[in-house]
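Researcher: Please translate sequence to structure tokens.
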Amino acid sequence: MSEFPTSARVVIIGGGVVGVSTLYHLAKKGWTDCVLLEKNELTAGSTWHAAGNCPSFSTSWAVMNMQRYSLGLYKGLAAEVDYPMNYHVTGSIRLAHSTERMQEFARAKGMGNYQGLNLSLMTPDEAQAAYPFLETHDLAGALYDPDDGDIDPAQLTQALAKGARQMGARIERFCPATGVTQTPDGWVVHTDKGDIACEKVVNAAGYYAQRVGEWFKPYGGRTVPMVTMSHQFFLTEEIPELAAWTAANGRKVPLLRDVDSSYYLRQDKNGLNLGPYERNCRAHWVTPDDPQPEDFSFQLYPDDLDRLEWYIEDAMARVPILGTAGVGRVINGPIPYAPDGLPLLGPMPGVKNAFEACVFTFGITQGGGAGKVAAEWIVDGQPEWDMWACDPRRYTDYTDPGYCHAKAVETYGHEYAMHFPHHTWPAGRDRRLSPVHDRIKALGGVMGAYNGWERANWFAQAGDDTSEAATQTWERNGPWQPRIAAECAAVRDAAGVIAISGFTRFTVKGPGARAHVDRLTASTLPKPGRVGLAYFPDDRGRILTEMSVIPQSDDEIWLITASVAQWHDRDVLLRDLPEGVRVQDRSANYECLLVTGPKARDILASLTDADLTFPWLSFQEAQVCGKPCVLLRVSFAGELGWEVHCANEDAPAIYDAILDGGATPFGMFALNALRIEKGYRAWKGDLSTDYSMLEGGLERFIKFDKPDFPGKAALLAEQQRGVAKRFVALTLDDPGPCDAPYMSTIWHDGTVVGETTSGAWGYRVNKSIALGMLRADLAVPGTKVAVEIYGDRFAATVGADHPLWDPTNERMRA
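Model: Translation complete:
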């Protein structure tokens, strides 16, 4: 046996499928001097007891990409590394009990087909023909995935481990990491066998990720937002009818998911494996009387089938042969859950040269893609696909244990839930309240959570149905629709006010602060007294983020960005930070009240000593209601307006005075409708690293004569060869009841030629609008295309290269 390694480029902590896949993919990229540490044997955590199901289905573009890659990798892995694996590609059938579920399936089918997956819709009769033991009397239809199936998790992990070793990577089993120390050159990872100096470290510790994460707190880390849930499934004894069918047909029946009843049912040898996601679920290791053990390797929780009773009975009614066999084995094991059920995959928040690849709820089907993404983050500094859906920085400091517990229980019990556009989940709410929260609620505010901050989505009136049940629809019409229309009309015709609580606010301060920010952006920074929008590309010229920039001097720059971008954009600004320059986060100290509409000036005039004749995109400090404020003459609604930024304690008086002056309160749903009419992009929808700045139609924000900025060379090369896609605004010629969701496919002459990035009804122009990316040769005003919305195609027209509403910005400049 070779000596214990004392140095490595990367140390991975955790030997489950994700950690080993990360090691394998690092070696694939030529980083073979890497070490994985496992406290016990490989797979000893959640991997060993995982069911091993391998769906490609997702309504998240990023997650579908990751799972699609995994399944492609697994098909050839055994031959590549010469390690046999039990991998059964049986196909799967997802059952739909409702029209809404079939609409979700149609959307997933469109996304999957665009990615090259052969998903297809089924009638109930077609589902029964493929699964002859199925009762279909109450079904609306089904979704078929021919690439789904199951794989042996231990064999998969060992195959990846063999491949990594063959390329020169190192795995140390029975060698628990005991801590880390940051050094000027990277890290030292401590073990009982010795220390390993490395450049970068990865927390891939599964349901122990939170414990490992504590080691990084002295270096800027936080408590890893996660909870360990108990997931229980059981295997039946042999079922003679199933054995006979399998022998006669030479294959297994497809994997079955009754998503509206919340369980999967899979053939296992000649029996069945039933795995529910029950509402009455249980978290472990969250209370003092149930501490997490030091080592839970290859262990399970006690059986608890009583809580699955309803699901077992429902499954037996759906597939009656399930009730003919006894229970052979029960598996009740720990599965880590982030609050939204998606993994933590990417840079560790606040910690340099540290990464997370942990808290995977579906680690087997995601493991291959996760290893690829993690290796790209580590080696290249960015992944091929935009992976914000799984980025650890999507959670900031509101995720205390109570929040994580409440959300994990909610997410587990609604694992297969549909995520409707006007629905908000009730658990874990009221984490961050604006100083005008009570006033907004009293006015009828129906709230939503934005980076933990409560904001009004719309304002209900007496008698409006604000129940959760009312939101279970993909359609734009609902109790909110007339209220949103009225709010947009008020902004168009008079004035509205919205509290945009939780805006992220940074100050970059110190000698050379302006030069530092200027080096990070492709855009030109405005002069003091002005506000400018700046775009920050990555090294490929793709869109990392946008920020509003308000320079105070060469040594002090204010920046405002999206609430949810708080920790992401902090990292953008910290890149290559010069000595003596610091980045301060002032987000929690201020409220923002956007007053907008043609009468906004009249309302503010009696409240402020500000000079309201200052032009569009100007900045000034002034008094409002006798309180010190910052006024920015900007409006995401596309009307005359000012953002009034004030101290939290001053916001109630100012908000009351604005309302008393005649402003109508409006919410985020209305703001979204207003911004889409102007073609204003939303971060991580219209603006993402899936697109370059040139594809995003942001040429006017690129200053190519700057000495240098990230991605300049890539953008120059792209400019020379021409872009593949272009950003467009589409209007639907004869819209249906639903607006286009993210990643709806765009068709032309029977071919997919692009995708939508956001969609909404524009109440000022009275049209359904979709923003999106279209094949460059078709991105010509007047081109006719079709947008597929929940399975139906609607004719649409490419708009002119200017906003649909107020194309010359006269109303904003008034």
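Researcher: Any highlights?
Model: The first helix runs from residue 17 to 28.
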